[in-house]
Amino acid sequence: MSDKAKLIALIMGSQSDWDTMRHAARVLNELEISFEPLIISAHRTPDRLVQFATGAKAKGFKVVIAGAGGAAHLPGMTAAFTTLPVLGVPVESKALSGQDSLYSIVQMPGGIPVGTLAIGKAGAINAALLAASILSLSDNALDQRLTAWRAAQTDAVALSPRDES
Ligand code: RP5
């Protein structure tokens, strides 16, 4: 693996979040954006969180995508320790279908922002695309890849519906 700094930290509270966050990873791969996936739990590994968040900017990350479910403190606590943009993905929880995750992430007090996406897969995909938009402001080649990705998505939409079964 290359020693070059990865642009995106793709962090999540648990292995169980990967089934959602892998969709962000897929989009980042499609856009050829380097990223590092990490399991960091605000509750179970608080020291790991502090070490990561306080050192993220120095390590070269430009954006943090943080997915968590339930009492989802990971995005907010990460944002408390860094001025990097933090994009929060509420993972769909079993007990409350991700509404707990959403409210935990979106209701940050004024002063510590977390850009909050939709619950689940759509949020993970859009977090990757939003991170790409942020990075593309200073990366013309990425801007072109992102524009092409969007055009391909548009081209893939059929004009008429068809029977799928
Ligand atoms: C959160 O608790 C994680 O982000 C995960 O969504 C949720 C459940 O974690 P596990 O019990 O599956 O490890 O911290």
Automatic annotation (TrEMBL):
Belongs to the AIR carboxylase family. Class I subfamily. InterPro entries: PurE_ClassI, PurE_dom, PurE_prokaryotes. Substrate binds at residues 14, 17, 44. This is N5-carboxyaminoimidazole ribonucleotide mutase. One of its GO terms (molecular function) is lyase activity. Its EC number is 5.4.99.18. It comes from Beijerinckia indica subsp. indica (strain ATCC 9039 / DSM 1715 / NCIMB 8712). Pfam families: AIRC. Catalyzes the conversion of N5-carboxyaminoimidazole ribonucleotide (N5-CAIR) to 4-carboxy-5-aminoimidazole ribonucleotide (CAIR). Residues 6-157 form the PurE domain. It comes from the Bacteria. One of its GO terms (biological process) is 'de novo' IMP biosynthetic process.
